[in-house]
Amino acid sequence: MSDHTTAELTVSDATATATSANPSQSDSFSKVRKAIQSLSTILPSIPPSLSSSSNPSFSLLHDPEISTHISALLRRSSAGAGDDNLCRWLYEAFQSGDPGLHLVVLRYIPLLAGAYLSRATLRRPLAGFEAVLLALYAHETTSRAGQPVTVNVPDVFLPSLYHEPTSPAKSNSTTLNLAVVSPTLEPHGTVRATRRARIVGVALELYFGKINEMPKSSKIDFCEFCTVWAGDRDGHHNLRSDPSQVGDTDGGDEVELGTHIPLPWELLQPILRILGHCVMGRWANDKEVFDAAKEACRSLHVRAMHDINAKAILATESLIRLGNNMCFEMELPNGNGCVDPHEIPTTNVITLN
């Protein structure tokens, strides 16, 4: 009996067990089972533990072997074409509507968006990448129902938050306290150069919305691509995948990058939110993600200075200062090497700056 056949039988057994225990999960297990079977025809191998897992979507999200194989395929120079089987799998997994498979697709958005933006300026057909990005964009467009994403901003003309009125005023002045986090989305069926940043930005917004559930390696991939997108003064970069992870199946594993990657605010805004999360993760003692995020912030700050982008300069400099403050707090002799920014310090010393 082949490995794929054994895997299918094992997944079927796990599905039957889950269905009998909780019938409401039968549809989800069926979708994940089909997704794993389909993925087994694309990847070199599927770990046996994935097939026998009681929570296959969670295992699919965090399994290091699956991550290695998929990351290697996305980094190939031929990835993203219209006949790319992995892009087709990601598209179908997201269109399945299963929340667990949604997380799996979002987990690889940093790699997919990174490879796409890095090569989009080369004017090569990347229909596979664009199909996945458009699926995420269409999902979010439908979810918002034509409404922008807004937040209430405190009125700076009032002495404090405690002076805010308990009931909203009847005048239109209350609309001045609304800040638009993400503007209204217009339906798009294709990706054009003028829409590219907006469509990719929405995909990153979805990623940020689930970032607490993303593995550490996914966040590091994102930070590394931010450094690539920032570019140097001449705009030249080489991005190579690990030769031990990618076979020379398409004439080489080097990913050729464009000379200049536009970074408008509609793309920078979700990027900075994700980096902010990674920087704040330092207090959770996640040094590897923190270091990658700080390097990305520095690179983007240099890029913002070069582009004379005032908003980006202010935002990246704020993240750099935040990272420096987090480093300082981590060095304090508190016994456990970790500081909770929400904890009230217990000290009798008052410092006046």
Automatic annotation (TrEMBL):
<dbReference type="GO" id="GO:0046854">
    <property type="term" value="P:phosphatidylinositol phosphate biosynthetic process"/>
</dbReference>
<protein>
    <recommendedName>
        <fullName>Hyccin</fullName>
    </recommendedName>
</protein>
<dbReference type="GO" id="GO:0072659">
    <property type="term" value="P:protein localization to plasma membrane"/>
</dbReference>
<feature type="compositionally biased region" description="Low complexity">
    <location>
        <begin position="10"/>
        <end position="26"/>
    </location>
</feature>
<keyword id="KW-0472">Membrane</keyword>
<dbReference type="GO" id="GO:0005829">
    <property type="term" value="C:cytosol"/>
</dbReference>
<feature type="region of interest" description="Disordered">
    <location>
        <begin position="1"/>
        <end position="29"/>
    </location>
</feature>
<dbReference type="InterPro" id="IPR018619">
    <property type="entry name" value="Hyccin"/>
</dbReference>
<dbReference type="Pfam" id="PF09790">
    <property type="entry name" value="Hyccin"/>
</dbReference>
<keyword id="KW-1003">Cell membrane</keyword>
<keyword id="KW-0963">Cytoplasm</keyword>
<comment type="similarity">
    <text>Belongs to the Hyccin family.</text>
</comment>
<dbReference type="GO" id="GO:0005886">
    <property type="term" value="C:plasma membrane"/>
</dbReference>
